[in-house]
Amino acid sequence: MTSDIRNIVVLTGAGISAESGLATFRGPDGLWEGHRVEDVCTPEALARDPVLVHRFYDARRAALESVTPNAAHEALAHLDAAWPGELLIVTQNVDDLHERAGARRLLHMHGELLSALCAACGMATRWAGAMGHGPECPGCGARALRPDIVFFGEMPYQMDRIDEALTRADLFVSIGTSGAVYPAAGFVQTARHYGAGTLELNLEPSAGSFQFSESRMGKASRLVPQWVSEILGARNH
Ligand code: OAD
Question: How far, in Å, CA of 233 to CA of 220, rounded?
């Protein structure tokens, strides 16, 4: 069965970066200064209290400087380099740990901390430092730069490409995500509908655990390298 697999879609969430030291959103350490992420990450919150929203993302961007990819990011980068079939790693994470580990066939459906988006002209700019109170856009000059993050109520990036990959997938693997946020939480259903096998690797059962044909519970740093060596081993035999 495993040897019939050619096209793989991997979905990752905050759990894959937890062992690198980045807080998850809904874990015990999931609140930020008493705010739920749903209250900080909205267009309304940015309009109402831009200082608060910028502070939230400035803190998360600064945290990137002191963390490094873990064994799970590295295993997926190895899969990316070695897998002869189609592979798409869709991450909900806004950190850059997948690419720092070397993953290339990757897309950030919820945006990136290291990018700023101009709300006036739509230009995206690489952004490494703090955004403070909302800096000027280097393109149009408007003081309208915001984190290039998909807020609640906004459309995730590259949905057409993701949907297309899901329709062709032989295997869908979900790693380190609670399954609380759509549309990512619905990818397992789409993949199943088009005939893919489905595997969940998570610390605990997610909201949609029952929809996966197989669930393995444990830390990503152990489960992901194990799965990657299984799938690459099956391919080579
Ligand atoms: P959550 O914080 O909701 O879920 C993280 C999941 O990872 C939980 O199910 C944990 O049990 C699991 N987990 C924690 N540590 C783990 C480990 N070491 N190994 C494996 N699993 C572990 O994060 P997401 O599901 O990613 O959106 O959240 C989805 C979206 O909600 C995020 O992308 C973010 C947030 O609002 C945006 O930023 C737009």
Answer: 19
How far, in Å, is the centroid of ligand 1 from the Cα of 26?
Answer: 7
**Assigned fold of 24-66+111-149:** SIR2/SIRT2 'Small Domain' (3.30.1600)
Mutation test of ligand 1: which of 115, 177, 226 has the most ligand atoms closer than 8 Å to its C-beta? 177
Q: What is the pLDDT of residues 49-105, one digit of tens each?
A: 888 899 989 999 999 999 999 999 999 999 999 999 999 999 999 999 999 999 999
DSSP string, 119-139: TTT--EEE--S--TT----TT
Dist. CA 237 → ligand 1 center (Å): 34
Which superfamily is assigned to 1-22+68-110+156-237 in CATH? TPP-binding domain (3.40.50.1220)
Strands (E) across the chain are located at: 8-12, 87-91, 106-108, 111-118, 124-126, 145-149, 171-175, 197-202, 214-217
Three-state helix/strand/coil letters over 204-223? CCCCCHHHCCEEEECCHHHH
- Does residue 169 have its Cβ closer than 6 Å to ligand 1? no
